[in-house]
Amino acid sequence: MAEIKELLEKLKHIADNPREQLDNYIAQGKKAVGVWPYYAPEEIIYAGGLVPMGVWGGIGPIDKAKEYFPTFYYSLALRCLEMGLDGTLDGLSACMLTTLDDTLRPLSQNYKVSVGRKIPMVFLNHAQHRKEEFGKIYNAKLFESARKRLEEICDVKITDENLKKAFEVYNENRRLKREFIKLVGSHSQTVKASDRCYVLKAAYFMLKDEYNTLLKELNEKLKALPEEENLGPRVVTSGIICDNQGLLEVLDDFNICVVADDVAHESRALKIDVDTSIEDPMYALADQFARMDEDPILYDPDIWKRPKYVVDLAIDNDADGCLLFMMNFNDTEEMEYPSLKQAFEKEAIPLIKMGYDQQMTDFGQVRTQLETFSEMVQLNNM
Fold it and tell me: Which CATH number fits domain 1-159: 3.40.50.11890, 3.40.47.10, 3.20.20.150, 3.40.50.720?
């Protein structure tokens, strides 16, 4: 148990100190590239001997970014740009940005004329018609352009051989994370909701081979423990990101066990591995993206496929309900809420919608909602 605690503390420290991680890698003579939301092909960065560093906003002021955005843009985008403007991201050799929702499109252009003057941008405009052959070909060419841009900016060579090695490392990373998430559901006293978040978050600030070593050790030690009784509600979480320390403390106070998640920052990108049998590495990445589904930012003509997926997550993992953290001003998530609500009501599974913002410090309303939810679960289980 002491070894598990030590591993959890080590990963939490990494999750809480990305600047320290970046400085350590730079001191080793490595170059780092910022990876912004969502679905940026990190494998290309890793294959160049570069360090991918996640850029997912965080708690902090939003001042300079307001010169480029109206106040009603969601805080994740504003805070990411602020980090570039205030020097938080200094030391990165480049940043990789995508345009998969209506906020990311102007964000990429605002980045180009501001932060991009000191930290070059690798721009990715994914084809949303990703499943058709023409979409795959387009995205493969897009990823090839990103490779060339990184080679130019960082003065590296990204070979097909190293890309295929990167696919193996990243496939293992996704597999280990999926295994960890399952283990948490049966070891919620040892791994609290906050621990779960920090373990997954740490991966954004580590080379994946280094992270895989730690996570593999943690998983093996958890598998050696007997299954534990859940002391609180079993839930599925949904939303963009829910790593706010104040929020995590509230979840721990109610002994919330997160048995699965539909969170962009956590599991949404973990479901699909790269098909290593495909010879062309860029086409392999395009094929992986083509097989990604059940995400509100990805085009899907079947509007009921996504709600069913989230409901099934709750059913398949024996969850007592779903906690939906709705980021303020995120139109994509807000527009799909009615269909989610209808799907959960049909199955008589509680769906608790909570407003969320990266700058939030008062979680009194969340605490009240969780108190009511916990009482409902206790009554249902009597």
Answer: 3.40.50.11890
